[in-house]
Design a protein that fits this description.
23% strand, six-stranded mixed beta sheet
Length: 164
């Protein structure tokens, strides 16, 4: 572990992928074989899609349905595995490991674009990262997504999302 070179005087409000409250939390119920990360693994704190086999999960839709809404949001549940020698942390679930997908509740998230209260949140169809519909004042900072976390609407040709 490297020597610390910064000091933070306060903890952030939350960490991307973590539950933000104890309000009702809904998980996607898998089939008998559960859900497992596909080739290349699955990013935590991003949207994900269950593939055509009903078991494999990736951060992009199945090629047979490229504009599909995401199945759920990958929550932090101590499921990321440090697979590289001397790796300190990871936000990736390794290929073949179990994946938990949230379909409702309040979670902390981080978008690649600016975010503001009341905006729609969309999932990139290429990697599941979050994007907000309009510019705001909190780009790069964790925010809370509340309500349904999957299967809603697509307003842009390259994104699909919850609309909440």
């Amino acid at each position: 572990m490297p020597f610390p070179n910064t000091v933070h005087y306060g903890w952030p409000a939350g960490f991307p992928g973590a539950w933000a409250s104890q309000n009702p939390q809904r998980m996607v119920v898998p089939g008998a074989n559960g859900f497992c990360a596909g080739a290349g693994g699955v990013a935590v704190a991003a949207f994900a899609w269950v593939q055509a086999d009903g078991t494999t999960v990736l951060n992009k839709p199945d090629p047979a349905n490229p504009k599909a809404a995401p199945t759920g949001f990958v929550v932090r549940a101590q499921q990321g595995q440090a697979t590289q020698y001397m790796q300190q942390n990871t936000m990736t679930i390794a290929q073949g490991f179990m994946v938990g997908l949230a379909e409702g509740g309040d979670v902390f998230a981080q978008a690649t674009t600016a975010s503001a209260t009341g905006q729609a949140v969309y999932a990139s169809l290429s990697d599941g990262t979050l994007q907000c519909a309009a510019a705001g004042a909190a780009a790069g900072l964790p925010f809370i997504i509340t309500g349904p976390l999957a299967g809603a609407r697509s307003a842009l040709s390259s994104t699909s999302g919850t609309g909440n």
